[in-house]
Amino acid sequence: MLSNDSMKYTDKEIVEKGSRVLIKELGYSGFLRFIRRVEGSSKEDYLKINEEVFKGMSLDDIFEGAKEHWYDSDSE
């Protein structure tokens, strides 16, 4: 049965949570490819989403996360 739990989140929270799930499953480069792909059919601003997703992260943090995902993907 489908839950209405998503209704308790703001649009911003939904974007943040969805972005985190996509990053976890696809990695950073896959996430960015996904955003570019749907960008034409979406009214969302890619740069704003990108800014929210990586807010507070240094380039080193982003690189380490990408490297971890890369290594995790190798073991699948």
Largest sheet: none
Mean pLDDT: 78
First CA to last CA: what distance?
31 Å
Question: What value does the Rg take, in angstroms?
Answer: 14 Å
Give the number of domains. Answer: 1
Broad structural category: mainly alpha
Oligomer: single chain
Layout of strands and helices, then pairs:
Blueprint: H1 11-39, H2 46-53, H3 59-74
Helix pairs in contact: 1-2, 1-3
Keywords:
about 80 residues, mainly alpha, 3 helices, about 0% strand
Describe this structure in words.
There is one protein chain. With 76 residues, the protein is mainly alpha-helical. It has one domain. 70% of the residues lie in helices and 0% in strands. It is built from three helices and no strands. It has helices at residues 11-39, 46-53, 59-74. Helix 1 packs across helix 2 and helix 1 (11-39) packs across helix 3. The longest helix is centred in the N-terminal third of the chain and has 29 residues, at 11-39. It is globular and about 35 Å long. The mean pLDDT is 78.
Can I get a quick summary?
This protein has 3 helices and no strands.
